[in-house]
Automatic annotation (TrEMBL):
Protein name: SDR family oxidoreductase
Region (Disordered): 1-27
Family (UniProt): Belongs to the short-chain dehydrogenases/reductases (SDR) family.
Ranges where the Ketoreductase domain occurs: 22-207
PANTHER family in UniProt: 3-OXOACYL-[ACYL-CARRIER-PROTEIN] REDUCTASE, CHLOROPLASTIC, SHORT-CHAIN DEHYDROGENASES/REDUCTASES FAMILY MEMBER
GO biological process, one term: fatty acid elongation
Length: 267
């Protein structure tokens, strides 16, 4: 009788082993979902760096979670290069959370954008590019900068959106692009035992995402659209991110995991 093959699980690299502290970078970790993700990893004993363009929310998040705050605009290669010097040699988990719907709060250029002339087109291109920069370029650039420093067995997680499936102009296109780009990234990193996934939230309350753009009526509609009849909270997303980076998530890669209370199913 032949003996059973050795258990693969026992060969899990340190970055996946329960209780082993890792270094975690959470982009946009000063507010909302990113802040909850930073708190979740810190509570596990990991060391965490949080980034964003504004110092004040980062410092508040640092006080709450013990994370190290670093001001960094993830669309800017020079600021990213400076960030690399503030990180340890090995990063176990990269969470590309920075982003948002850049049309919210943007100056109202609708009249101009609707025009067929050059200035209307320039305005449309500017707004479209802003969403691609904020949601797709930030993640691609940050991952590219850190690729060689990701720990064997580590995890990369990007924040996508239900908008990638339901549509929502340039923002939805940017988040859909993120998911498509991640498929190739998962193959590239997989040979080092590193997983790469997208967590795709539906409506999540208690963040700065909507600013003043959410009416009470729209909020009620978003909650009514869920099967669970409640708004998501940042901790709902943080739990899923933590799982994907855990030992339990070691064979999940190249996927989009929806956290939307049943507001939309890809099946
Ligand atoms: P928040 O606006 O609270 O968080 C976004 C964070 O990203 C902010 O801390 C912001 O900080 C940071 N950020 C934005 N652009 C940059 C940049 N160029 N460089 C560095 N940091 C940046 O909203 P959420 O917590 O809700 O959003 C987190 C992620 O979840 C986003 O990617 C969003 O698209 C996604 N999402 C959110 C949903 C929701 O309903 N809340 C639904 C689906 C997806 P600063 O302005 O200081 O740079």
């Amino acid at each position: 009788m032949t003996s059973a093959p050795a258990a693969q699980a026992s060969q899990a690299p340190a970055a996946r082993t329960s209780g082993t502290p890792r270094h975690v970078l959470v982009t946009g970790g000063g507010t909302g979902i990113g802040r909850a993700i930073a708190a979740r990893f810190a509570s596990r004993g990991d060391t965490v760096t949080v980034t964003g363009r504004r110092a004040a929310p980062l410092e508040a998040a640092a006080k709450e979670t013990g994370a190290e705050p670093v001001v960094c605009d993830h669309t800017d290669p020079e600021q990213l290069a400076a960030l690399l010097e503030r990180l340890p040699e090995r990063v176990g988990v990269l969470v590309n959370n920075a982003g948002g719907q850049t049309d919210f709060g943007a100056p109202d250029e609708d009249g101009e954008a609707g025009e067929g002339g050059a200035s209307g087109l320039a305005s449309y291109a500017r707004r479209f590019r802003a969403n691609l920069e904020a949601n797709l370029i930030t993640a691609a650039l940050t991952t590219h900068a850190l690729t060689d420093r990701l720990a064997e067995g580590g995890a990369v997680i990007h924040l996508g959106s239900i908008a990638a499936d339901k549509g929502n102009g340039a923002y939805g296109a940017a988040k859909a692009g993120l998911a498509a780009w991640n498929v190739g990234l998962a193959r590239e990193l997989g040979v080092r035992g590193i997983t790469a996934n997208v967590v795709s939230p539906g409506y999540i309350a208690e963040t700065e995402f909507f600013g003043d753009a959410l009416t009470g009526e729209r909020r009620n509609q978003l909650v009514a659209d869920t099967a669970l009849k409640r708004a998501g909270v940042p901790e709902d997303v943080a739990e899923t991110v933590a799982f994907l980076a855990s030992e339990g998530g070691r064979h999940i890669t190249g996927q989009v995991i929806a956290v939307n209370g049943g507001a939309h199913s890809t099946r």
